[in-house]
Amino acid sequence: MRRRSALGALLRRPAGAAAAGWLALLLVGALVSRVWTPLDPFTTDPYSAWLPPSAAHLFGTDGVGRDIASYVLAATGTTVVVAVSAGVVAVLVGLALAALGSLTARPVREATAVLIDVLVAFPTILVAMALAAAFGGSLAVVVVATGVGYGVTIARVSRAEIRRVVREDYVTAARASGAGTAAVLRRHVLPNIAPVFVVQLSLAMATSVLAEAGLSFLGYGASAETASWGRLLADLQKFLGVHPWTVVWPGLAITLTVLALNLLGDAVRDAADPRLRDRPAGTGRAGGRRPAGPADPARSPAPEVTS
Amino acid sequence: MTLEIDHLTVTIGDRAVVDDLSLRLDDGARLGLIGESGSGKSLTTLAVLGLLPRTARVGGSVRLDGRELLGLPERELARVRGAVVGTVFQDPRTALDPVMTVGRQIAEPLRLHGTVTRREARRRAVEAAAEVGLPEPDRIVDRYPHQLSGGQRQRVVIATALITRPAVLLADEPTTALDVTTQAEVLRLFRRLVDDRGASLLFVTHDLAVLAQVAEEAVVLSRGRAVESGPVTRLLHAPEHPVTRGLVAATRATTWRAS
After folding, report:
1. What is the pTM of this model?
2. Mean pLDDT in consecutive groups of 10 residues from the start of chain B, 259 residues
3. At A296, is the secondary structure helix, strand, or coil?
4. pLDDT tens for each residue of B85-100
5. Between chains, do A192 and B75 touch, taking CB under 8 Å as contact?
6. Looking at chain B, which residue has its C-alpha nearest residue A167?
7. Termini Cα distance of chain B
8. Which stretches does DSSP call E strand in chain A?
9. How do beta strands B67-68 and B56-64 pair?
10. Alpha-carbon torsion A147, A18, A226, A63, what sign?
11. Which residues have a Cβ under 8 Å from the Cβ of B50 and sit 6 or more positions away?
């Protein structure tokens, strides 16, 4: 019941629908490119180098005669795999650290908070490059680096959210109704931190797409046998002055994907929160911050529920 | 069921917020616990169910039909909470989970304690919603708290506390957050439901006029200590302790201003 209306609310929002549409297209592209691309994306042909867009080569060809459209399509698979695995890693790392930093005994949770703050200070891309230098560049390095890197950010935000929710009156009320720690977490804490969590997750996935492109561009990411938008950009940018339109295709793919992920995160957040869902579709994000709860921080005593 | 509180002491930091409080709630009785804000009355209700913050130290004894509740493991306490002892919280704006439908909240104690199916839980929630006088009960259970008025939300809180038919009900200022008209309605409803079920009631409030409508006996708390106790009518008409006199004067002042 609730799920259906949340999905409906998501698709009623223009930004949400557009973002979901683009990402669905990506998924389909990723699957289709496993079995079919218009031309082989890796076949080079010196006689058809730098061809302009045409019916045979939708996006034209690059300096070694590869079909850019086929290559861009083949690279969607890489992007999807990286974004999804980095997202999974980020969620696992984020939730584990957040739980450790909010639900445990005071010394443990304070130590975790410091650890999180220290880890947040490391620039993700730099860590990825260091890892790549040590273990050789690969997509796994990109996934681990951005997954852990963004997992830490998720942990920081979620930790604060969990600590806020756990002090709410409705958690005390749920405990007074007989809910144990597990039931409180599952029934009240998770649903209440979900909106913030989803936004962070979408940012993590967007960052991982950018990081994969960036690292592959620098030669630390995808290997030569793996199609990647960043790699294509790296190949094409050397001839930017001569054939500027060629870089538009991978650039556009990266931009749209990152934008879609960011928009989808916001839209899912709004759709998942019943207080925001009620606003008529089309009002978009006008004043679209979470409504400040009626909770008054000065209210006391705030029972702390962590046992 | 009989609830006995013996020499209850709650210390937070080095301050005793409840100090050597003893009271006895007999089976089917209604007892008021009255005092100004900060007198420790809400903490007393939390202490009964072991819901105090971990920084609080609790001493004394809380017995339910002779069974000691203090120091009981969480697992055992969870079986008592919401099933044997129901709690009505003060502020309906914060006591309801904003992202859970009204129906699921009303049925939550059932889901937590029983083996009711989702469908059965919903049916019981609709019944309970009707019983507390919520409009269109079969539709309101699918709404979210922010779509309800303050009075409606407090009815939801009451329905939640009563759905398992607990033998003991702790009510922590259940009408304080409501406006005067709604307060009277909710209080009437509350009294009727408690009567129907024959539950023992511990009613916490700072308002003697409200208390006079639900309880016969009351204990007056001040700074965590019981300073006076007796029949509510006697407290109203012949208060002995200065704190009780202050509460009576405050009640008169608000009643006078309201009329």
Report:
1. 0.81
2. 93 90 91 89 91 90 93 92 92 92 95 90 94 92 93 93 92 85 85 87 90 90 91 89 88 64
3. coil
4. 999 998 888 999 999 9
5. no
6. B53
7. 39
8. none
9. antiparallel
10. negative
11. B69, B70, B72, B74, B77
Closest C-alpha among B63, B18, B20, B58 to residue B42: B18
Strand ranges inside B104-254, DSSP E: 168-172, 200-205, 217-222, 225-231
Task: Count other C-beta atoms under 10 Å from residue B88's C-beta.
Answer: 27
Instruction: Tell me the pLDDT tens digit for each residue of A67-98.
Output: 888 999 989 999 999 999 999 999 999 999 99
Listed by start position, the domains of chain A span 2-277
Residue B187's H or E segment, with its range, is helix B180-197
Q: Which residues of B touch A306 (CB under 8 A)?
A: 54
Which is nearest to A191 in space by CA: B104, B235, B129? Answer: B104
pLDDT at A284: 42
pLDDT recorded at residue A46: 83
Q: Which positions of chain A have pLDDT values less than 70?
A: 1-5, 278-307
Q: For residue A293, give the nearest of B52, B98, B113 by CB distance.
A: B98
Task: Give the dihedral sign, CA B80/B81/B83/B87.
Answer: positive
Site from B11, B69, B84, B94 to mutate, A interface, most A CB atoms within 10 angstroms:
B94
Whole-angstrom distance, CA of residue B70 vs CA of residue B49 = 8
Q: Which chain B residue's Cα is nearest to A184?
A: B112
Domains of chain B: 3-258 (3.40.50.300)
Long-range contacts (CB closer than 8 Å, 24 or more residues apart) made by A28-36: A29/A73, A29/A76, A29/A77, A30/A76, A30/A77, A30/A79, A30/A80, A30/A81, A32/A73, A33/A73, A33/A74, A33/A76, A33/A77, A34/A77
Strands (E), chain B: 3-12, 15-25, 30-35, 56-64, 67-68, 85-88, 168-172, 200-205, 217-222, 225-231
Which superfamily does CATH assign the domain made up of A2-277 to? MetI-like (1.10.3720.10)
Greatest alpha-carbon span in chain A: 78
**Exposure letters B10-21 (e unless 16+ CB within 10 A, then b):** bbeeeebbbbeb
| Cis peptide bond N-terminal to B73, omega within 30 | no
Nearest to B99 among A177, A191, A278 (CB): A191
Cα A97 to Cα A37: distance, rounded to the nearest angstrom: 42
Q: Which residue in B142, B143, B112 sits closest to A174, CA to CA?
A: B112
Do strands B200-205 and B168-172 pair parallel, antiparallel, or not at all (unpaired)? Answer: parallel
- Which residues have CB under 8 Å from A235's CB, separation 6+? A62, A63
Question: What's the rounded Cα separation, in Å, for the pair A217 and A234?
Answer: 5
Quote the pLDDT of residue A278.
65
DSSP state of A67: B
The region, left, alpha or beta by phi > 0 then psi within -120 to 50, assigned to residue A28 is alpha
SS3 of A89-146: HHHHHHHHHHHHCCCCCHHHHHHHHHHHHHHHCCCHHHHHHHHHHHHCCCHHHHHHHH
In terms of Cα–Cα distance, which of B65, B76, B81 is closest to B26?
Answer: B65
Instruction: Give the number of beta-carbon pairs within 8 Å between A and B.
Output: 103
Rounded Cα distance between A191 and A275, Å, is 13
Q: Is B224 within 8 Å of chain A by CB? A: no
Chain B residues with beta carbon closer than 8 angstroms to that of A294: 93-94
